[in-house]
Amino acid sequence: MSIDIESLSYEELLELHHLISQRLKTLESSKNPRDNRKFNQGDKVSFAHPTLGLQTGTLLAHKEKTVTVVTRSGQKWDVSPHLLRKVVSRDKQTKKVYKIPNRSEE
After folding, report:
1. Which CATH number fits domain 8-87: 2.30.30.140, 2.30.40.10, 1.10.10.10, 3.20.20.300?
2. What gap in Å lies between CA 49 and CA 80, rounded to an integer?
3. What pLDDT, on a 0 to 100 scale, did the predictor assign at position 46?
4. Cβ distance 14 to 53 under 8 Å?
5. Which of 13, 68, 73, 93 could be stapled to 60 by a disulfide with Cβ–Cβ 3.0 to 4.6 Å?
6. pLDDT per residue over 35-63, tens digit each?
7. Which strands make up the sheet holding 85-86, listed edge to edge?
8. Which residues fall within 8 angstroms of residue 61, CB to CB, at 6 or more apart?
9. Nearest 5°: phi and psi at 62?
10. Cα separation of 50 and 10, whole Å?
11. How wide is the angle at C-alpha 33 spanned by C-alphas 81 and 46, nearest 5°?
């Protein structure tokens, strides 16, 4: 495909630029939607900070390339999804179900 841009007017060039920019944004955003949607809003997640160590918080929002995580102390972090790990609470790991006998069965 070839386009002779020398013959295009200023307005046509602007329109072409707009179309190219939109297409590039679409292609770029489709590259990592899986990374960004591995986690859901409200998930407990953690990530390693270079100086502060392991940070744990709740996923607040999805952005174009990052997600926002809020820690218990109220700090907000914009983190790339590939740096996150889902936190599994101990309650879910050791959950036991006990059957309580009905008094009428005694």
Report:
1. 2.30.30.140
2. 12
3. 94
4. no
5. 68
6. 556 788 899 999 999 999 999 999 998 88
7. 76-79, 67-71, 53-62, 44-49, 85-86
8. 41, 67, 68
9. -100, 135
10. 49
11. 15
